[in-house]
Amino acid sequence: MAAVTAFTASSRLFYALARDDAFPFRSSFMALNRYQAPYVGVWLSVLAGCVISCAYIGSAIAFNAILSSAAIAVMLSYMQPIFIRVFWPTTSLPERGPFTLGTWSWPINMASVTFTLFICVLFILPTATPVNQSNMNYAIVAIGGVLLIVASVWLIWGRSHFTGPVQTLSDIRSPKETPKVE
Prior knowledge:
Blueprint: H1 2-19, H2 26-30, H3 39-58, H4 60-87, H5 105-124, H6 139-161
Helix pairs in contact: 1-3, 3-4, 4-5, 4-6
């Protein structure tokens, strides 16, 4: 059940990023099938899930690197808005909502940023000493590879095409204007 949820979420993310022109092949990622599902994103998510699952058959080390890097990526994604709130000038941030931690906001946010960075370092450490090829944690290599790919796509495509998320419903294509597959 968790896999279905992950595939659904990632396919919707593909669709939203394509809608906002964040990466190449926009029309392919926006194509909907007769059930109004972004089928290219669904199949890419399924393919990625299969490749990750096959990594365990080939090498437990590779599978552990994938799991560690996924945990680190999730932790860093949680940390980003907190980090921005702590270190960005408050005049350029959106107005605070009805819930606030008051004077405790800054120390709690700093503690969460510090703790997240500490946990990320722990996830990168090898599992045993002395470190050799069989017990090395290759999560840092996986994260570096993903960051390199994302930075390349941004520099080659996103920087010149992506203007930010669609702001109004009138800017979003209707299903009738979206390419379909029968």
